[in-house]
Write a structure and sequence with these properties.
Elements (H helix, E strand, L loop, with lengths): L11 H5 L7 E7 L2 E8 L7 E9 L8 H15 L5 E7 L3 H9 L3 E5 L7 E7 L10 E2 L6 E3 L1
Parallel strand pairs: 1-8, 3-4
Antiparallel strand pairs: 1-2, 2-3, 4-6, 5-6, 7-8
Length: 147
């Protein structure tokens, strides 16, 4: 399944389509342009929120947009959803993403159950206090944005 999201399938439309009904969608902007998006599920029975997609536009990479996306998900999981952890899957050879997740406290949780031969799972346990994320709610659809 994850293979469908790579190569020719790695398009903005492909990332947006399945995310219409998840608990959290964040649109990130840079200099008034759409620069990225991230989504997450509602907590499961154990309180784990799954970050299911993070995409940053090529022009915005290296400008903190991915960091802002992670901050939004972690803060939302902690304050809005009552989650106790955030989990994600990442390509095992995507060193820049793994390093970025590590800067946000995510640690290796072994092979991803989605695609154990090509993806790693990472997790972060949510603490008692987190910095403000800067995410703001849009009243018309309940989604969040970050600038």
């Amino acid at each position: 399944m994850l293979a469908e999201w790579t190569g020719d399938g790695d398009t903005e439309q492909r990332w947006r389509g399945p995310l219409a009904k998840v608990a959290l969608n964040v649109l990130l902007t840079l200099e008034d342009q759409s620069a990225g998006m991230v989504s997450a599920t509602a907590p499961d029975r154990e309180g784990a929120v799954e970050m299911i997609s993070l995409w940053v536009a090529p022009f915005a990479r290296g400008h903190g947009v991915g960091d802002a996306a992670l901050d939004c998900v972690v803060a939302w999981a902690h304050t809005e959803s009552g989650g106790v952890s955030v989990v994600l899957s990442v390509k095992a050879d995507n060193t820049p993403a793994i390093q970025s997740y590590g800067r946000h406290g995510f640690t290796d949780a072994g092979p991803s159950p989605d695609d154990p031969s090509h993806h790693a799972a990472m997790t972060v346990t949510l603490g008692a206090s987190l910095p403000s994320s800067g995410c703001s709610s849009r009243a018309d659809d309940g989604q969040y944005s970050h600038s």
